[in-house]
UniProtKB/TrEMBL annotation, chain A:
<dbReference type="InterPro" id="IPR000515">
    <property type="entry name" value="MetI-like"/>
</dbReference>
<comment type="similarity">
    <text>Belongs to the binding-protein-dependent transport system permease family.</text>
</comment>
<dbReference type="GO" id="GO:0005886">
    <property type="term" value="C:plasma membrane"/>
</dbReference>
<keyword id="KW-1003">Cell membrane</keyword>
<keyword id="KW-0472">Membrane</keyword>
<keyword id="KW-0813">Transport</keyword>
<feature type="transmembrane region" description="Helical">
    <location>
        <begin position="244"/>
        <end position="265"/>
    </location>
</feature>
From TrEMBL, chain B:
<dbReference type="GO" id="GO:0008643">
    <property type="term" value="P:carbohydrate transport"/>
</dbReference>
<keyword id="KW-0547">Nucleotide-binding</keyword>
<dbReference type="InterPro" id="IPR008995">
    <property type="entry name" value="Mo/tungstate-bd_C_term_dom"/>
</dbReference>
<keyword id="KW-0472">Membrane</keyword>
<keyword id="KW-0813">Transport</keyword>
<keyword id="KW-1003">Cell membrane</keyword>
<dbReference type="InterPro" id="IPR003439">
    <property type="entry name" value="ABC_transporter-like_ATP-bd"/>
</dbReference>
TrEMBL record, chain C:
<feature type="transmembrane region" description="Helical">
    <location>
        <begin position="75"/>
        <end position="94"/>
    </location>
</feature>
<keyword id="KW-0997">Cell inner membrane</keyword>
<keyword id="KW-1133">Transmembrane helix</keyword>
<keyword id="KW-0813">Transport</keyword>
<dbReference type="InterPro" id="IPR050809">
    <property type="entry name" value="UgpAE/MalFG_permease"/>
</dbReference>
<feature type="transmembrane region" description="Helical">
    <location>
        <begin position="106"/>
        <end position="128"/>
    </location>
</feature>
<comment type="subunit">
    <text>The complex is composed of two ATP-binding proteins (UgpC), two transmembrane proteins (UgpA and UgpE) and a solute-binding protein (UgpB).</text>
</comment>
Amino acid sequence: MRARNIWPHVWLVLGVLIFSFPIYITLIGSTHDASTIGRGDVPLLPGPHALENYAQAWGSGGGRYMGTPAVQMLANSLAMALLIAAGKIVISLLSAFAVVFFRFPGRMICFWAIFITLMLPVEVRIIPTFEVMVNLSLVNTMAGLVIPLIASATATLLFRQFFMTIPPEFVEAAKIDGAGPMRFFKDVVLPLSITNIAALFVILFIYGWNQYLWPLLIINDRGLETIIVGLTKMIGGGDSQNEWNVIMATAVMALLPPVGVVLLMQRWFIKGLVETEK
Amino acid sequence: MATLNLRGIKKRFGDTQVLHGIDLDVADGEMIVIVGASGCGKSTLLRIVSGLESATEGQILIGGRDVTALEPAERDIAMVFQNYALYPHMSVFQNMAYGLKIRGLPKAEIESRVAEAAKLLDIGHLLDRKPRQLSGGQRQRVAMGRAIVREPHLFLFDEPLSNLDAKLRVTMRAEIRRLQRRLAVTSLFVTHDQVEAMTLGDRLVVMHQGRAAQVASPMEVWSKPADTYVAGFIGSPSMNFLPATMEQDGVVLLDSGERLTLVTPIPGSTGRAVTLGIRPEHLSPAEAGLALRVELLEPLGSETVVHGRMPDGTALTAKLPGMVPEGTDLLLRPDSAWLHVFDRETGRRISA
Amino acid sequence: MSQSAIFKGVVVPYLLLAPQLLVTAVFFFWPAAQAIWQSLLREDAFGLNSDFVWFENFVEVLTDPTWLDAALRTALFSVSVATLALGSALFLAVQADRNIRGATTYKTLLIWPYAVAPAVAAVLWLFMFHPNIGVFGRALNALGITWDYRLNGAQAMTLVIFASAWKQVSYNFIFFLAGLQAIPKSVLEAAAIDGASPRYRFWTVVFPLLSPTAFFLLVVNLTYAFFETFGVIHSLTQGGPGKSTETLIYRAYSDGVMNLNLGTSAAQSVILMLLVIALTFVQFRFVERRVHY
């Protein structure tokens, strides 16, 4: 009986090790100098160059391959992720509130219009969307990076689902108390939605941070480069002579914020993940 | 503080007529209980008075002021909901103060009103708690408190006791009655529970299929039900209904063959097909009377409810004092002072 | 909801919806309509004139052997990613479910790869499997296996599949574990009393009860492999060597952005749109049924 109970642990520890190894080797890579890695002698233990690698990545970027310092790309990514998450939440809260607590002509059409966006990911409308961006002079702007991504069917559906569980008596009590719709939104709906907002925020922050195709299309100004796209541009053709030490340090910085958010806000993260898929 | 007048209130939802024209005059400080089975329109009527629903036709006056077109907040009313509708994220104090805050009352005034109401309801020590930290009875009090602080002209209660357990319901019932008397606020109270209705109301409105079947004091509703529906709805166990014909103005001939004499004859009723109503408690064992083959005994301690059939198969229920031995057939005589005669066709009461 | 539980007004709700509808119209519906329109046009070589050519672009795309190859490759790639990611996640979830006490710890240790961007995942795997500098790349070469994903298409595909699946396992793990923990213990105890062995119990009781979750995850994983792995491919192999890792999305991107072939790129977009619509439809049909479990 005891012998059998040990196996799940063995498998799980093995699983954790396999899943962590890519990160581990990246961390190791970020602590050696370029020539050690370039020679192909990738050690399995940390080296002494961590500080200078991170300092270079943070302050000046990957030398001759990519001149944008990570601090700037991190700032861009952070701004993009925060704006996308906040924008999606605000826009969806308002839409869901309108759809659930009002009856107006065209209500269902509006709802379906939002719903259908689920079926139109950026990937399938690359060129025409880019053309719209050009026409609106949004290429190479933070607004262009963020605004097209803040429509959210998923978040609207989630909030709608949640709002429909708010007892109708709350609306009635508010009416008798003399609260108008926006007052009700601010005093009752918003406070009740806090946990949902937090859970959604975690998911959307990661979504925003990890955007790839969209910034790749819209941004070619190095000053607006996001860390994810910047990182892959540093690699180029995958040359052995790359400054891999700096690239790995940048990779660590690129994945730390979203991973940190997941680990620190694990409860919200799992709630958000499960709720958005309902 | 205010009277309430309803004039010809009608309500239609699409093709369904829910209210067929309700008229009601409520005196200042009166407690009116609207009672009826589910789907009779009682809640809709209350909601129309509150302004949460609008009437298809008719007029509502509160304190003589026509409020038909006004929003709920402008009607000077307060409502206690069935599930209390306490905001879960607000403390008891905030819940009670919310309506006053929206009205822009000064902070000191709000605090003193809430404190006063809390004292009245004995919930002063709960003001900082959240609703989920309260028991059912305490939530009920907070819901009342929220209504009281508003100092409204009219209280509306939408089955506020139905979420409480049986024992608490009896306590809260008495408390609501005491409170309403003390504050002397005109009140409408909706319930499906006839005991609640009888004990709470100055007058009852018995609703049936969108109409007010009877508007009268509880005793009158019980002693002189306006029709067979009211007669059957109020009283437990329900009144017995026996098909009969008026042999003379003062003599009823039951279809089963027995003759009963009325204390007060009904002039000009000879030959009319009627339904005779007898409450189970108005039957007593006698030497001669209605023969009952006993099918089931329900001993309640001080009395026994007897279910059985008359020789022609008509079901009859009697409530007799003390114990009734098993396996005996009974002869029962109705109390002639308590015979109710209804028209067979319309079900309307025709006896005095 | 009855009349009394909603607010009056028409202007307010439209104002509330305006931002979302505006973004939706400008950045979703207009481009989508453009894609459909462009897919029916063909521009001349100088981009000066365009003719309405009906479905010629579609015919061209659908009869292009290289596109059909890409379609087949995409199917192979997606199924491999889904199988790998679902299989290992289910295995790990079953192990974690066996000892509830440790489950939370393992969950924490296994969920974080979800937060790693596909493109970053590609960088991590590249660093491990680079033929000259990667730990595993060098080890493979030292063992006599000629490993260079930059030259060998099959190796490139394998690497892309593993990097893509690696990131998705944590997502599947969370849902499988939740699904397993939702199975009432009494059902398992009843099966044990019936004398079923643990393995038999798993396949006859646990797995059928888990199948709604599994099916839902299958759809999600296929969608992920189709669209979101663009980052992996773009940063790891750029579709190469040759076209050996070119999926449909990658091709639509390179045809449109690099080769500026608007008509056929638009036709490809429309075909992909139909695919997403089909997947979304399946997912929602299914979710509706899932509610009853």
